[in-house]
Automatic annotation (TrEMBL):
<dbReference type="GO" id="GO:0005524">
    <property type="term" value="F:ATP binding"/>
</dbReference>
<dbReference type="GO" id="GO:0001678">
    <property type="term" value="P:intracellular glucose homeostasis"/>
</dbReference>
<dbReference type="InterPro" id="IPR001312">
    <property type="entry name" value="Hexokinase"/>
</dbReference>
<comment type="pathway">
    <text>Carbohydrate metabolism; hexose metabolism.</text>
</comment>
<dbReference type="GO" id="GO:0005536">
    <property type="term" value="F:D-glucose binding"/>
</dbReference>
<feature type="domain" description="Hexokinase N-terminal">
    <location>
        <begin position="442"/>
        <end position="628"/>
    </location>
</feature>
<dbReference type="InterPro" id="IPR043129">
    <property type="entry name" value="ATPase_NBD"/>
</dbReference>
<keyword id="KW-0324">Glycolysis</keyword>
<keyword id="KW-0067">ATP-binding</keyword>
<dbReference type="GO" id="GO:0005739">
    <property type="term" value="C:mitochondrion"/>
</dbReference>
<dbReference type="InterPro" id="IPR022672">
    <property type="entry name" value="Hexokinase_N"/>
</dbReference>
<keyword id="KW-0418">Kinase</keyword>
<feature type="domain" description="Hexokinase C-terminal">
    <location>
        <begin position="197"/>
        <end position="425"/>
    </location>
</feature>
<dbReference type="Pfam" id="PF03727">
    <property type="entry name" value="Hexokinase_2"/>
</dbReference>
<dbReference type="GO" id="GO:0008865">
    <property type="term" value="F:fructokinase activity"/>
</dbReference>
<dbReference type="GO" id="GO:0006006">
    <property type="term" value="P:glucose metabolic process"/>
</dbReference>
<protein>
    <recommendedName>
        <fullName>hexokinase</fullName>
        <ecNumber>2.7.1.1</ecNumber>
    </recommendedName>
</protein>
Length: 873
């Protein structure tokens, strides 16, 4: 049983390998050491408060407690008050039916509540220390993997259903003790605690990096892992260290083959090991002159307490113990037996030291630290009552890990208080989450009835817009695009595309069946977007000139299509008056003017290039055309980008005075400008609207498009922070900055592939420094805001496709939508939610979405080609 340092180091290395094996998803199933995630990530911060009931089952005593946690500034000692009562657990319950065991637990709890005058009428929060291996999917739920120690009840279901308690947290005794040590000792960084329970069982838990815990989602921060190290060796890893006595102890136990490490070190078995060694020595005639008493042959006759006593006061106690066993020992017998006892308990502390060394080494490597300073919380009867045990343990650990400064703290109030602390933390986090969830995020969750209403309002908006433009918020602008391309288009065209933030110039060459595209992107500085109209169009002309120069076409007069992604009242394909700027544009002296003329004049002013602008089109129309080139069924164009809009092919009989079918640019972003969406508009939307350059306008667009979603998110975050629910209540300058959340960040934050750590680093790049918990909330806010946007667009789309279906008197409509825009293309969930909503809300239509490959620029060129064809004809 003697182990030298080489052996201990070898053991420690095997232990480390086991830890790794248990953490990894691939090898966990086969691992002996289970490394159970506990879902305890947060330690008390001193702001928790409340009164909790607590149950502590699985240690040497079953206890019911009442724990009061008082709020304090910082973490100070003495803020937890406890009253407890110990209840016996009759032996027959340990091995009887589990329901009986838990009935007993619940009766004891009731008795305690009665005694303390705690009403059964109310529901009380309860913390449950349950010191057995449990597979936990949540803090308040766990499946018992197997009983250990002397428990072996049959059929175990523990349910959280009770009228008078609500189980907030279920924790292993190791975890609870770690919390207690961290709470009590303000110098002890709780996360650095490793706890070993060496009472009836043995176990350890420690804070592991989440990124290493395969079984739990998330990469950020740490979570406490309950190692269940007692089962180390169950797969044979300790074979060469086992003695015949260990094998005998195991064979006679209630769980042979299981908890091998535990059986070598823990209190339940130390006495038994000593008895077996002494028995063998007596049988060999080396003790008591070969006499063996019946008592010595009886299992359990030497207890851990006896081993402790022999440790404490050597020979005197040893003699008493042996006398009790009717052995009549000589002085030499006593010396020898005491020696046996010392060796057995020495081996125990050696083994524990090797295990602990493995964990500490792991922590040190995890944190990339040369020297580790760490506090280890300890509890358990062996540690507490064997006078020599702690000293030996400390000494060996320090010898095995000379580079670590290890401090051991004895847990004073045990694991029950820790469970209450875990519950208190859980309660704090739950109430925080509830506040965030209920009060704020629910505002963004739309019920199907509400979406049906949006659909109906969109529909009446479309109808009203067709009847008369002036009284409708949805303008339903005729585009003078009647035909979709037929594939006979040929030649070279220029396309100019003024979209959300960029201006693109393109050269499109249509050949038989194919087209080739060359383009260049120009950004539009804010001062030009919001300067004068003349400056803006001069800038566009300058870009065109640069592009033609770049393409070597400065001296050719090419036919051009002009995609102008703003509402224009058109009277022909090549003229259109700007109705109102939208999105980020606000150049003066443009609204009410013909934008084609403005561009022509700007070009004329330069006097170095020439263009034949044959078509003016909206980006939605361009997108539709571009997609229709590939698929004739495409009769809708949609943009979900900086702004949002849709166009579709309408029957001309529905458009005043015009015959045939024409594409209508709905400008649906204006829905709600008459107040018809007020019931779903939140205070955050209102705030965004008030801070925009076109107050009261484009209310639908402001709830659904890329330019605004980030602002809505920012407003929510501001509010949550002001209410102390986020960023520790600190409203930073960054958070006050309009526009920090661009669509691309929203898309990144919501990406499923991104771990929390990356979300946090995106937020940090934006200058928002928060905890991992903050990142979760931010992500959540982004999710609800963008989901609502997609649903609203889906409801709008449903209105459009149903209208087209009715226009054509069909029961069923098969139609394709050409879509473009950064929100649609880059956001991880938007398109999915959009499609799903349309499916549900327009059950009589089969709507296929086709992302436009080449933007609306190609569409503009096509329209130019079609327009020229007509003109030439
Ligand atoms: C592009 C079109 O593909 O999509 C633009 O060519 C349009 O005209 C744009 O405005 C919409 O996307 P975003 O996200 O840039 O507004
Ligand atoms: C046993 C249990 C474990 C507990 C330990 C100490 O090993 O399996 O969950 O922590 O005993 O009580
Ligand atoms: C805005 C414009 C509209 C455009 C849309 C998408 O809503 O008013 O014309 O189609 O943004 O870019």
């Amino acid at each position: 049983m003697r182990l030298n340092d080489d052996q201990l180091n070898e053991l420690s290395a095997r232990f480390q390998a086991e830890l790794k094996k248990g953490l990894s998803a691939e090898s966990n199933a086969a691992a002996a050491v289970k490394m159970l995630p506990t879902h305890v990530c947060s330690t008390p911060d001193g702001s928790e408060k409340g009164q909790f009931l607590a149950l502590d089952l699985g240690g040497s005593k079953f206890k019911v407690l009442q724990v009061k946690v008082r709020e304090c500034v910082g973490i100070k000692k003495g803020d937890v008050e406890m009253e407890e009562k110990i209840y016996p657990v009759p032996d027959e319950l340990l091995t009887g039916r589990a329901t009986e065991l838990f009935d007993h637990v619940s009766e004891s709890l009731k008795d305690f509540m009665h005694e303390k005058n705690i009403s059964l009428e109310k529901k009380h929060p309860l913390a449950f220390t349950f010191s057995f291996p449990c597979d936990q999917s949540r803090l308040d739920q766990g499946t018992l993997l197997n009983w250990s120690k002397n428990y072996k009840a049959r059929g175990c279901t523990v349910s959280n259903r009770s009228s008078y308690v609500e189980i907030l947290a279920m924790v292993n005794d190791t975890v609870a003790t770690m919390m207690t040590c961290g709470f009590d000792d303000s110098y002890c960084e709780c996360v650095l605690c490793v706890f070993m329970c060496m009472g009836t069982g043995t176990n350890a838990c420690y804070m592991e990096e989440l990124r290493h815990i395969d079984l739990v989602e998330g990469d950020e921060g740490r979570m406490c892992v309950n190692t269940e190290w007692g089962s180390f060796g169950d797969d044979g890893a300790l074979k060469d260290f086992l003695t015949e006595f260990d094998r005998e102890v195991d064979a006679a136990s209630s769980n042979p083959g299981k908890q091998i490490f535990e059986k070598m070190v823990s209190g339940m078995h130390l006495g038994e090991l000593v008895r077996l060694v002494v028995l063998k020595m007596a049988k060999l005639g080396k003790l008591f002159d070969g006499r063996v008493s019946d008592a010595l042959r009886t299992k359990g006759k030497i207890t851990t307490a006896d081993v402790a006593a022999m440790d404490e006061n050597g020979l005197k106690n040893t003699k008493d113990v042996l006398d009790e066993l009717d052995l009549n020992p000589s002085d030499d017998d006593c010396i020898a037996v005491q020696h046996v006892s010392t060796i057995v308990s020495f081996r125990s502390s050696n083994l524990v030291a090797a295990g602990l060394a493995a964990i500490l080494t792991r922590i040190r490597q995890n944190r990339n630290m040369g020297a580790l300073r760490i506090t280890v919380g300890v509890d358990g009867t062996v540690y507490k009552t064997h006078p020599q045990y702690p000293k030996r343990l400390h000494k060996v650990v320090r010898r095995l890990l000379p580079e670590c400064q290890v401090r051991f703290v004895l847990s004073e109030s045990g694991s029950s208080k820790g469970a209450a602390l875990v519950a208190a933390v859980a309660q704090r986090l739950t109430s925080l989450r509830r506040q965030v969830g209920l009060m704020t995020l629910s505002l963004f969750r739309l019920k199907e009835e509400q979406l049906q209403l949006v659909k109906a309002r969109m529909r009446s908006g479309l109808d009203a817009g067709l009847r008369s433009k002036s009284s409708s918020t949805i303008k339903m602008l005729p585009s003078f695009v009647y035909l979709t391309p037929d594939g006979t288009e040929r030649g070279k065209y220029l396309a100019l595309d003024l979209g959300g933030t960029n201006f693109r110039a393109l050269l499109v060459r249509f050949k038989k069946q194919t087209s080739r595209l060359y383009h260049k992107i120009y950004t539009i500085p804010l001062e030009i977007m919001q300067g004068t109209g003349e400056e803006l169009f001069d800038h566009l002309a300058q870009c065109v000139c640069d592009f033609l120069d770049y393409m070597g076409l400065k001296n050719t007069r090419l036919p051009a299509g002009f995609t102008f992604s703003f509402p224009c009242e058109q009277s022909a394909i090549d003229t259109g008056t700007l109705v109102a700027w939208t999105k980020g544009f606000k150049a003066t002296d443009s609204e009410g003017h013909d934008v084609v003329s403005m561009l022509r004049e700007a070009i004329k002013r330069r006097n170095d290039i020439d263009l034949d602008i044959v078509a003016l089109i909206n980006d939605t129309v361009g997108t539709m055309m571009s997609c229709a080139h590939e698929d004739q069924r495409c009769e809708i164009g949609m943009i979900a980008g900086t702004g949002t809009n849709l166009c579709y092919m309408e029957e001309l009989k529905n458009i005043e005075k015009i015959e045939q079918r024409m594409c209508i640019n709905t400008e649906w972003g204006g829905l709600g400008d008459d107040g018809c969406l007020d019931d779903i508009i939140t205070l955050y939307d209102t705030e965004v609207d008030q801070n925009s350059i076109n107050q009261g306008k484009q209310r639908f667009e402001k709830m659904t498009s890329g330019m605004y979603l980030g602002e809505v998110v920012r407003q929510v975050l501001l509010d949550l922070t002001r209410r102390g629910l986020l960023f520790k209540g600190h409203v930073s300058e960054t958070l006050k900055t309009p526009g920090i959340f661009e669509t691309k960040y929203l898309s990144q934050i919501e990406s499923d592939r991104l771990a929390l750590l990356q979300v946090r680093s995106i937020l940090q790049q934006l200058g928002l420094h928060g905890t991992c918990h903050d990142s979760i909330i931010v992500k959540h806010v982004c999710l609800v805001v963008s989901r609502r946007a997609a649903q609203l667009c889906g409801a709008g789309m449903a209105a459009v496709v149903d209208k087209i279906r009715e226009n054509r008197g069909l029961d069923h409509l098969d139609i394709a939508v050409g879509v473009d825009g950064s929100l649609y293309k880059l956001h991880p969930h938007f398109s999915q939610v959009l499609k799903e909503t349309v499916r549900v809300m327009a059950p009589q239509c089969d709507v296929t979405f086709q992302p436009s490959e080449e933007g609306s620029g190609k569409g503009a060129a096509l329209i130019a080609a079609v327009a020229r064809r007509k003109r030439d004809v």
